[in-house]
UniProtKB/TrEMBL annotation:
Species this chain originates from: Parapedobacter indicus
Protein name per the record: Glycosyltransferase involved in cell wall bisynthesis
Pfam families: Glycos_transf_1 (PF00534)
Keywords linked to the UniProt accession: Transferase
Occurrences of domain Glycosyl transferase family (ranges): 190-358
Single GO MF annotation: glycosyltransferase activity
Keyword Repeat part of the UniProt annotation: no
InterPro entries linked: Glyco_trans_1
Source organism, top-level taxon: Bacteria
Length: 410
């Protein structure tokens, strides 16, 4: 069974790239990637096809804003004996208004595809609504990661329940290490560590946690709040480090600058798992509810971290049954109260971590990969398929006068 995965791809620093890599490896345990000739079609955010040093699993590269690339990619996939396409979907990674160029690819595909919606909007604009409905209409299956997303696809987008499959966000299959040792290895102070991870921007609500620090530090002067992650590339291009600077200035104004640690690094999974295992509390202070999926929240639960979060959609669902604590949007006083209570009650803190870790076992990638493999097998193309050699595939591509080529080593 040959699968073409369409996604951003590492080394591009992108959550979908990490997700897709994990999915490929997890499905590989059930449907061999190399033996069946599966491959990745990668999305670049510039016209430079060599922008990222992809490995040999990437056989095709699409420049985000070049419509012709999407048409050529469809021809490439159709000519290569593919049984199933797996498309990672976020509006921002595809070209055209709201990523409409992706429809140019799916419209030309002659093989079935599964689309994984990482974002499902409750109030889409007309173009977003049309894109999701058209992608779902042509898809063999639609995957989302929460019950709320299933509800929205049915109620807002009028997508048939029979086509929708809910599969949770996968988490790394790592052992749980010793927190004290990890703090030393990561260069973190021995004090109590609060942690937030992810690409930094105003949509993350980090100022709420900083505003909560004075009340927390008054009772727990050994607290340090670690913000781990680079500034979001889009924010960086438009505004530089203004947001990060504003957070530093806020901490100075509140007298808690010494309790704030910035680590501007995009860490990969094993190191992230170490940070999550080392922290005392993981905080996601997002300022509004409209976040249907949070990979970082899933990772925190998978690592057995004690989570305190605002009740955005994914958190409200994932932190049920005492797997974490919720506080109201933008409510720094409530946040400080919850954190103070947990840091003063080690038994309750330990209970949260135990509940999260136990539930996280069901989210490990080997189990999630099995669900995807079964889904793909259910919807594969069954008729006889052409399988062209590499040289012929290059001719197919060039006949469309596109700049994309088969990946070659240099």
């Amino acid at each position: 069974m040959r699968i073409a995965y369409i996604s951003t791809c590492q080394p591009r620093e992108c959550g979908l790239a990490t997700f897709n890599e994990n999915l490929v490896h997890a499905v590989d345990q059930h449907i061999s990637f190399s033996e069946h000739g599966s491959f990745i079609v990668a999305l670049n955010d510039s016209d430079d096809k060599r922008q990222y040093a992809y490995d040999d699993s990437v056989k095709f590269v699409i420049s985000q804003e070049r419509l012709s690339d999407y048409q050529s990619a469809a021809a490439f996939i159709n000519s290569n004996g593919v049984d199933m396409c797996c498309i990672q979907h976020e509006f921002g990674i595809y070209g055209g208004r709201n990523g409409v160029y992706l429809l140019g690819l799916t419209r030309l595909l002659k093989v079935p595809y599964t689309v994984i919606f990482h974002t499902v909007l409750a109030q889409p604009n007309p173009i977003q609504l049309s894109i999701v409905k058209r992608l779902a209409d042509r898809a063999a299956a639609v995957v989302v990661m929460t019950k709320k997303a299933v509800q929205l696809l049915r109620a807002v987008y009028d997508i048939s329940t029979n086509k929708i499959k809910a599969i949770p966000h996968g988490v790394p299959d790592f052992d749980k290490p010793d927190a004290v040792t990890l703090k030393t290895n990561l260069g973190l102070p021995a004090e109590k560590i609060l942690l937030t991870f992810g690409l930094i921007g105003p949509s993350k609500g980090l100022e709420t946690t900083i505003k909560s620090l004075p009340a927390i530090c008054k009772r727990h002067p050994d607290v340090r709040y670690v913000i781990l992650g680079k500034t979001h590339p889009g924010i960086l291009r438009s505004f530089g480090e203004d947001y990060r600077t504003s957070l530093m200035q806020l901490a100075e104004k509140l007298g808690v600058a010494d309790h704030l640690i910035f680590i501007s690094e995009f860490v990969h999974e094993r190191k992230l798992h170490s940070y999550l295992s080392a922290c005392d509390l993981y905080i996601t202070p997002y300022p509004n509810e409209a976040q249907i999926t949070s990979g970082t929240l899933s990772y925190a639960i998978g690592a057995g971290a004690a989570v305190v979060s605002t009740p955005y959609w994914h958190a409200a669902e994932l932190l049920k049954n005492n797997r974490g604590k919720l506080f109201d949007f933008n409510n720094d006083q409530q946040l400080s109260s919850i954190i103070n209570e947990l840091l003063s009650n080690p038994a309750e803190l330990k209970s949260l971590k135990r509940n999260a870790y136990k539930y996280g076992l069901s989210l490990r990638w080997p189990k999630i990969g099995k669900q995807y493999a079964q889904l793909f097998k259910t919807h594969i193309k069954t008729e006889e398929k052409p399988s062209l050699p590499e040289q012929a595939l290059m001719q197919v591509t060039s006949s469309f006068s596109r700049t994309l080529t088969w990946k070659t080593s240099v």
